[in-house]
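Researcher: Excuse me, tokens okay?
***
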Amino acid sequence: MALHSVCMAADVYLVCLQHALSTEKEEVMGLLIGDVDCERTLHISAVVMLRRSDKRKDRVEISPEQLTKAAIQADKLTHELGQPMRVLGWYHSHPHITVWPSHIDVRTQAMYQMMDKCFVGIIFSVFSEDKSTK
């Protein structure tokens, strides 16, 4: 099933943005939790910030343990909210570089989309300057 649109709760957006702005020296990442409605709109309503496991500053990876913990968190939210929730995406930062995904980002996204066609990836390009406005 192809998605029609993606809606991210404002508080989730602010958490992700603040996480992305927490360091300009290395990439950060997290997992996105939500659900897909009957009109094929993905609703992101929670976030799980992840610790870095890759020592390279321009790489982020999701470990199986982190994915499992996020799935457990989604299950807890399902019971608390009374609606189905699951891990539906990931986000990461690109400090001082373009918003466009790297070949590694594309490969990572493709891997997760093979498991779930609705899995989304969001890149926060932070600490970048528009040289033309100076």
Q: What stands out?
A: The mean pLDDT is 91. Residues 73 and 93 are 22 Å apart (CA to CA). Helices lie at 10-20, 64-81, 103-115. Residues 6-128 form a domain with the Cytidine Deaminase; domain 2 fold (CATH 3.40.140.10).
